[in-house]
Amino acid sequence: MSQLTTIEKLEILADAAKYDASCASSGTAKKSSLGGPKGRGGIGSTEGMGICHAYAPDGRCISLLKVLLTNHCIFDCHYCINRKSSNVRRARFTPQEVADLTLSFYRRNYIEGLFLSSGIIKSSNHTMEQLIEAARILREEHDFRGYIHLKTIPEADPELVHQAGLYADRVSINVELPTDAGLTRLAPDKNARQIEGAMKGVKSSIIEAKDAKKHFKHAPRFAPAGQSTQMIVGADSANDADIVGKASVLYGSFGLRRVYYSAFSPIPDASAVLPLKRPPLIREHRLYQSDWLMRFYGYSSGEVMAATGADGMLPLDIDPKLAWALKFRETFPLDVNRAPREMLLRVPGLGVTAVNRIIAARRHRVLRLEDIGKLTVSIAKVRPFICALDWRPTALTDRADLRKMLAPKQEQLELFAA
């Protein structure tokens, strides 16, 4: 068998990494490449623009080299294209090769950081050591100050996971599936309690590092951008209510920065226990919207779950916020001149920015419907749920066809349209 070139390895291992969605770099501290403890300039920065791989919540474009250390794996997770029983082309980088690639790409302004994950080779501890070594080479030998996200392995020794956090800006441990039953059925080599134990350890280390930083200026940092996780959507029978409930528990128990949702994608030579079709991508989008409601709009998981149908699924034709408003119409209409901020955030069509503008504007004058129209993108979705000085929706809020009126219009696209 001929030896693969670096470019051939990169082609295989970058493609294999595309299934991992948890690579956004929001939350990291902005670092300058000026100065440095060794009296010379450091390499890398988390600021700037480049090839876009992910977006931070503040709108910054984050360019990352997203790659696996190897796609060899001793585990046999049914949903994973890199499982040991899968017939895929295999490749493997050394930690030095990963470091060299990262530096080479950075110097060409292709990337601003590294997202590194891996299949499990030999053992969980051995693989974790290899991931850490790649980060160590970058940080200690090259004074690399760009963003590093390491995918950690819950089965590895806790001390190794801790070492990863000392080098990485963010660490992530994937829970994989929303339910214990789904994990047992589709990932027999993984254990839900072991995953949660590893996440708990990371949370404790983050808290301890923050506390130490308050008392000691040069205390070592630990994953300053926090930890994240990922759930696969549609590979098992879990409905949206199950997924929302699981996400809420993860946020509350482990202080996660993000839970990422990844729609299951059918893979070659798939196991018979997997569905033949992928779920609609709009389902993934609705879950992200529900996640946003819990994180930024003050909704509890129970309220988001209440927006689901009898089958526990979020509607696909309308967003979860509108679904909740239509289900609890007795809450509306709200007076934009008097309603508190937390209630205005529940008005469909009003985002955080629009609500903040309304609250600022009503300090100076009584708002009319025209004023609200100037503070938001579209007034049509808002009108049935608010009152203003010159506007009351009367029977509009209770119309039987209100959902049909507000749902986005479905359009048939032309295949050969100019």
UniProtKB/TrEMBL annotation:
One of the Pfam families matching this protein, by short name: Radical_SAM
Cofactor or coenzyme needed: [4Fe-4S] cluster
GO molecular function, one term: metal ion binding
Xref: InterPro entries: Aldolase_TIM, DNA_rSAM_put, Elp3/MiaA/NifB-like_rSAM, Endo/Exo/Phosphatase_dom_1, rSAM, rSAM_sf, RuvA_2-like
Domain Elp3/MiaA/NifB-like radical SAM core: 63-290
Superkingdom field: Bacteria
Keywords: Iron, Iron-sulfur, Metal-binding, S-adenosyl-L-methionine
Cross-referenced PANTHER family: ENDONUCLEASE/EXONUCLEASE/PHOSPHATASE FAMILY DOMAIN-CONTAINING PROTEIN 1 (PTHR21180), TYPE II SECRETION SYSTEM PROTEIN K (PTHR21180:SF9)
The protein's name in its UniProt record: Putative DNA modification/repair radical SAM protein
Species in which this protein is naturally found: Allopontixanthobacter sediminis
